[in-house]
Amino acid sequence: MHHRYPKAGFATRAMRPAVYAGITRRVEGVQREIADMDRREWFRLHYEDERHRNKTEMFEILARCKAELRGYPHHPWRTPRLGTSQNVCTRLMCCGYQHPKAEYMVAFLERQERDAFRRAMFNERDHEGEVLGRLIREYLPGKKRRGDDGAA
């Protein structure tokens, strides 16, 4: 405002254009983010209990959030909900393990295989658990199960 209306007295010293350049676009972007109900719900379920006493702690929380989001191939709030809960996230990308039908399983892979699998899932924008579930479901129908050989 100081640059546009210098005689109005909005500022006692001039503000660098870099500070206010594009502010309208940034504010509109934040307004769109706030209006996204799925995004707000995801942040509430993942970060509602976070508390900070000062700016340093606030920036630490923000850094953890940014690091978590960098670990996903796309925004987790855009993935399907696997259940309905007001208090627990059930989004496929980040919290699919909380689905009522989810079961914990262990896979034995060498580190290189595990890293390659994670990269592939990231590139395909899929969740590791969902892909493992599909692979297991494909495997089951074609295999004889113990006790199914007709022997008594």
Provide a count of the helices: 7
On the 0 to 100 scale, the average pLDDT is 80
Overall 3D form: elongated
Instruction: Flag low-confidence runs.
Output: 146-152
State the end-to-end distance. 88 Å
Question: Helicity level, as a percent range?
Answer: 40-55%
Instruction: Tell me what portion of residues adopts beta-strand conformation.
Output: under 5%
How would you sum up the major sheet? none
Give Rg in angstroms: 24 Å
Structure in a nutshell:
With 152 residues, the chain is mainly alpha-helical. The protein is built from 7 helices and no strands.
Salient structural properties:
elongated, 51% helix, 152 residues, 0% strand, mainly alpha, 7 helices, single chain
How would you describe this protein?
The structure is a single chain. The protein has helices at residues 17-20, 23-35, 37-47, 55-70, 92-95, 111-124, 128-142. With 152 residues, the protein is mainly α. The radius of gyration is 24 Å and the shape is elongated.
List the helices and strands and how they pair.
Layout: H1 17-20, H2 23-35, H3 37-47, H4 55-70, H5 92-95, H6 111-124, H7 128-142
